[in-house]
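Students often ask what a 'structure token' actually looks like in practice. Rather than answer in the abstract, let us consider ATP-dependent zinc metalloprotease FtsH, a protein of 520 residues. Its sequence is given first.
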Amino acid sequence: MLKKKIIFLLFIINLIFTSLMISSRFFPALSFKALNTGDIFFITLVTIGLFIYYIKLDNNPQLVPAAISTEKKKNEEKSKENNKPDISFDDVAGLDEIKEELQEIIDFINHSEKYLKMGATIPKGVLFHGPPGTGKTLLAKAVAGETNSTFLYSSGSEFVEKYVGVGAKRIRNLFEKAKKEAPSIIFIDEIDAIGSKRNSDSNNEKDQTLNQLLVEMDGFNKNNTIIVIGATNRLDLLDEALLRPGRFDRHMYVGNPNVKAREEILKVHTKNKPLDSSIDIKDIAKKTHGFSGAQLANIANEAAIIAVRKEKSKIDINDFNSAIERCIAGLELKNPSVLLKEKNIVAHHEAGHATVGKVLNVEMIQKISIVPRGQALGYVLKFPDEDRYLQTKEELLSKIKVFLGGRAAEQVFFNEVTTGAKDDIKKVTQIAKEMVCSYGMSALGNISINDQYIQYSIDKIENEIKKIVDTCYEEVLIIIKENQAVISEIADYLLEHEVIEKEELDLIFEKYKFPLETAN
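Now compare that with the structural description of the same chain:
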């Protein structure tokens, strides 16, 4: 816009100047006699050139039309990339329940005539929701591969534009392309970017894009075998109009894999890697409780990288253990400058965690280390014996006590506390808050308190949280005081070797069996 104004101003100045020069030929009183015919011709030519350039600027589409005019070209380029994928359900490890549910949709696309005879219609949309890295995109590609359908991938952010109408036009273009290339799968990743809840105060571009998506999903030709698959980590943010039957008919939760699924995923990601005979995939699956499919793939890749770094011909169990620690605790710091006093405190802190965990029999302790990783000066590596889906009140209280074991050890052995328990206290507070506000495990009774109502009862909630944490801390102090000898020996071992494995830890606990039993 500024460019046009400057050109127009120059054009006007030149026009006035040219007019005065021409006038000076007929009115000698004007002082342009010194200019010859060539000068007048040149200035006139410049004026005409500016005028033509201004006209072109005026006719040239700006910003929004330019963005819209390039959509067709972008779609053509995308069509070259969005070929029919060669991925099938054989490439998707675990997620057996989800695959079984999707078989119905696949059969509908492949053998639609038997469903049409019964008057059944194909589900218009499937919504995958769950934590990141659990295989939602891979599942969508597998559905396209199983049905030999065109796979059209889009991210929710691609439809979000500053200019009104651009996002809606992109939605229309996407669905037009899907209709031309049916059967097709439209996959919209991170759909919450355009599908978030609307309110009465907003009428922005995102709302117009969502409206267009709702219209397109409602207006499918019933003869077209087109399915929209959406993926999101935040189901609670999506608009109700998008979630209703007739748009996204099926909602499927894709969660983190269980131990059996983790074993299958690890087998898929290690099938092209040279593994040492010392590796037991089932044991690694047990150690990776709570990991997503993406994290498991990353662990397998990290183990291979570590093996190459150590110039090995095969990946052994030590490489996998290092990869798990790398993913859980962070990057190991080389030549850390930790003071001996701080190292001593960290050793007792981590020994406190391990001892309380052993006394209360909370999870299997695999390793204790005081080698700094990431922002942590030390850590305890522990894994559950089995996958758990329910936790009792006592188990939650035991978890709190284990987290408080480090702080209690500092207080008992050094008569002071440090900032090293920052992360522990944060986790303790979160568990206690969920017990009070979500699980009904406090004196407030069997009630659930939503986040928006917490502010109205903050004093009562804080008192309940403090009561839970303080009671646990008093019990932990007793455990620490009764087992000072075992904590001291673990700390001394850590100061000498920096790392203590499960076997050495069990031997120390065996020596001090009696104090552990009395504490329990």
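One point worth highlighting: The chain has four domains: 2-60, 69-253, 259-329, 340-519. Ask yourself how you might have guessed this from the sequence alone, and why that guess would often be unreliable.
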